[in-house]
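Problem statement: downstream parser choked on a complex file, so we are re-checking the raw output for the nicotinamide-adenine-dinucleotide run. The parser issue turned out to be on our end (a line-ending mismatch), but while we're here, posting the original submission so the record is complete.
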Amino acid sequence: MRLADKIGIVTAAASGMGRAGALRFAQEGAAVGVVDLDEAGANAVARQITDAGGKAIALAGDLRQDSFAREIVRRTANAFGGLDFVWNHVGHPGPAAIEGIDWKDFELAMDLNVRTVLVTTEAAIPELRARGGGALLYTASTSGLTGSQFSPVYNIAKFGVVGLVHGLAKRYAREKIRVNAVCPGPTDTPMLRVFVARPDSQLPPGETPESLVVKRGGQVPMGRPARPEEIANAALFLISDEASYVTGVALPVDGGATA
Ligand SMILES: NC(=O)c1ccc[n+]([C@@H]2O[C@H](COP(=O)([O-])OP(=O)(O)OC[C@H]3O[C@@H](n4cnc5c(N)ncnc54)[C@H](O)[C@@H]3O)[C@@H](O)[C@H]2O)c1
């Protein structure tokens, strides 16, 4: 098993890629703190893991609250006896528009893509250090590597995540804390539907969120969006000891989109 005896946290784990990651990591032997705003969803994922003989606890709450973003570290470490990795996966598309920008949505994007992951990081580092090292993984996006006409604000947030990864990787390398990001392209989750059809985006006439998901996927060289499990597989590699010499990387998992 690739994560035998490891203890970790996955945020935004009730759905999509986070859910796929939590299930996959548990299959590979990790004990997982399953964090989400959606209490029933987090409980269901944790139960699916424990029913299969794995170890998990559900941690339901709003990561916009700094106290909760810290508490997930303490509660996971207390439950399982330490912490080896965190996948800071939570995020938010933010506003599509620049002219007439919705500043509340801007703040939500900055809070969920940048601030909360930093709060959790601050809380996690002493726990990782206590184990002699560990892995921090973040979810950026292809929008953290190249510009998106659909989402300049999302670009700010996800370029910020990649910047954080580069800085942390160098700062903590000697303490054996590896820091990386996955950069998904369009991935078939509920958030992709929100992203392509935000209230302030210009939905082309006759299009629906579903038709736009197919269209966005069709623009990728591989001709389709990613499945959540394909992102989870890359995340598994980056947090596992197989990636022992990999740090400071923002890995595109995008069907060739940024090639
Ligand atoms: N889906 C894509 O195409 C895509 C592409 C690139 C990057 N991303 C990034 O992936 C992450 C989202 O993943 P997904 O597509 O698997 O999403 P998803 O829609 O499947 O799940 C998002 C989860 O986040 C939870 N959540 C939302 N706000 C929260 C909060 N305040 N506190 C705690 N949990 C909260 C929701 O309850 C939900 O379970 C984000 O960081 C996003 O920017 C998504």
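For whoever reads this later: The chain has a mean pLDDT of 97.
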